């Protein structure tokens, strides 16, 4: 079959487009009397709207430069009193919608790395901080001109390990199976979870997003720790189920849990036993377990 087209030019439809600035990084210090607060955020801002003529004929008259969007992030960070990434994302989206009639929707993603206050001589230090881990809080907010708003929040790379109550047995065995069944293995993972807030939360003005995030995370961690795990899939479900049962504010959760294998070292070559004490942690290859859950 000849798949080349013959005939004249076609009418081409621009089905979808958005543009903006990514990886806008900022550190903000809020100087209170007696102590400072520290935030490190990475922001992405994308606009959707009437940009047909820019793509079709190079008419830039409807384009707000992405450079201006970057400046808007910094300027708003200075004037805003938002302490949660959700509030800041909402303010940024509203600001851009109000000033740009050609824009139909604004998408803002904010990632926050975790700076913890240093404890010195048993006391929280007023102005020194510790970068704990690579865990990030993330929010993705979409604000439409109609004022419809969706907020998806969560965390990435929350690294955890269980040294008991984890096994993997009863799986398919075929001619290529080498994995040994076990009812006692290490279960290490870097959890990424994101959840959608219900409309009442998204539109609420006095929602404490930081407290909500903290409580959802704690609930998931407790489920991880307490779970009698028959597989990563089993524990992922238990963690998401605990969050969905614990928080009416959440309607759907998406989770990714890589299985960071720890392989038992064979010490019999040295005449030693190895009762599940010495392992080799491996980065690659790793299992990938992913699911999306919601309340029925
Ligand atoms: O919890 C697990 N789930 C799997 O699907 C799987 N596959 C595998 O090789 N090990 C594991 N562990």
From TrEMBL:
Keywords: Oxidoreductase, Purine metabolism. One of its GO terms (biological process) is urate catabolic process. Pfam families: Uricase. O2 binds at residues 66, 259. GO terms for molecular function: urate oxidase activity. It catalyses: urate + O2 + H2O = 5-hydroxyisourate + H2O2. The keyword Transmembrane helix does not apply. Pathway: Purine metabolism; urate degradation; (S)-allantoin from urate: step 1/3. Catalyzes the oxidation of uric acid to 5-hydroxyisourate, which is further processed to form (S)-allantoin. This is Uricase.
């Amino acid at each position: 079959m000849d798949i080349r087209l013959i005939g004249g030019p076609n009418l081409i439809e621009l089905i979808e487009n958005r543009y903006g600035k990514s990886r806008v990084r900022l550190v903000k210090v809020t100087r209170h009397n007696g102590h400072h607060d520290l935030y490190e955020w990475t922001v992405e801002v994308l606009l959707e709207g009437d940009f047909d003529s820019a793509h079709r004929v190079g008419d830039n008259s409807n384009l707000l430069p992405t450079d201006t969007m970057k400046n808007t992030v910094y300027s708003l960070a200075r004037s805003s009193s938002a302490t949660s990434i959700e509030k800041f994302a909402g303010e940024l989206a509203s600001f851009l919608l109000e000033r740009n009639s050609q824009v139909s929707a604004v998408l803002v993603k904010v990632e926050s790395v975790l700076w913890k206050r240093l404890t010195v001589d048993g006391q929280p230090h007023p102005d020194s901080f510790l970068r704990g881990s690579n865990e990030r809080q993330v929010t993705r907010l979409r604000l439409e001109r109609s004022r419809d708003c969706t907020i998806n929040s969560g965390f990435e790379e929350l690294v955890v390990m269980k040294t008991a109550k984890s096994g993997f047995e009863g799986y398919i065995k075929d001619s290529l199976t080498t994995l040994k069944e076990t009812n006692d293995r290490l279960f290490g993972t870097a959890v990424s979870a994101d959840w959608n807030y219900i409309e009442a939360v998204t539109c609420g003005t006095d929602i404490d997003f930081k407290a909500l995030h903290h409580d959802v995370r704690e609930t998931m961690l407790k489920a991880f720790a307490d779970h009698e795990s028959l597989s990563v899939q089993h524990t992922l479900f238990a963690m998401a189920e605990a969050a969905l049962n614990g928080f009416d504010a959440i309607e759907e959760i998406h989770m990714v849990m890589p299985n960071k294998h720890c392989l038992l070292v064979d010490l019999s070559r040295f005449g030693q036993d190895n009762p599940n004490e010495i392992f080799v942690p491996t980065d690659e290859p790793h299992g990938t377990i992913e699911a999306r859950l919601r309340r029925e």
